[in-house]
Amino acid sequence: DARVTQTPRDKVTEMGQEVTMRCQPILGHNTVFWYRQTMMQGLELLAYFRNRAPLDDSGMPKDRFSAEMPDATLATLKIQPSEPRDSAVYFCASGPGVGGEQYFGPGTRLTVT
Amino acid sequence: GEDVEQSLFLSVREGDSSVINCTYTDSSSTYLYWYKQEPGAGLQLLTYIFSNMDMKQDQRLTVLLNKKDKHLSLRIADTQTGDSAIYFCAAQTGNQFYFGTGTSLTVIP
pLDDT tens digit string along B9-66? Predict the structure, then answer.
């Protein structure tokens, strides 16, 4: 049963600290998406990759957020420095191609105090 | 960007049909999706429809697309308590994906 995995599941950190979230997409999927979900803003697309290359990251605050795919089995989302307003659930999703299905991971719940 | 709108809440009795509605604003949207989110979990893709289709059926789920009115609906037949969740509509336009705020479906036993 192929699934997207995300680590950590929960992260509590202090303002100013660096946070790195990791995602392992489903093997064979060539698109990877990062989303942020909050009560106020709902679900927002932050960035996505096709074949490890960033296709769109217009939804991501560039000054503190960065997203990479060092290899086909790992995607990372980094926040440096973190701020309380970054508190949210961050989801990674992967898909077999642009257009069509996306499979979501369980999310990383980030709390910045 | 595109606006995708859904009503916030829906309650139905077990065994009845549920209809969750969604409107979007960009007529060039290519794919329209329905996702289900249970508490503490990620979104689960239920079904999707390409914009040149007007209906898609998959077991208890029926998606209707009225492209002229930019209206999408998800019908769940014989709704069960396990269908209680938040349902998200999403529209894809080019490389962008836009999600609605989600409709919280409560199934009353």
Answer: 999 999 999 999 999 999 899 899 999 999 888 999 999 999 999 999 999 999 999 9
Tokens of B55: 């209906």
Which residues does chain A have within 8 Å of residue B99's beta carbon, measured at their own beta carbons? 42-45
Neighbours of B74 (CB within 10 A): 23
Q: Which helix (H) or strand (E) holds B90?
A: strand B85-93
Q: How far is A101 from chain B (nearest CA, A)?
A: 7
Rounded distance, CA A31 to CA A4, Å? Answer: 12
Virtual CA dihedral for A96, A47, A91, A15, nearest 10 degrees? 160
Alpha-carbon distance of A40 to A43, in angstroms, equals: 9
Beta strands across the sheet bearing A65-71: A5-7, A19-24, A74-79, A65-71
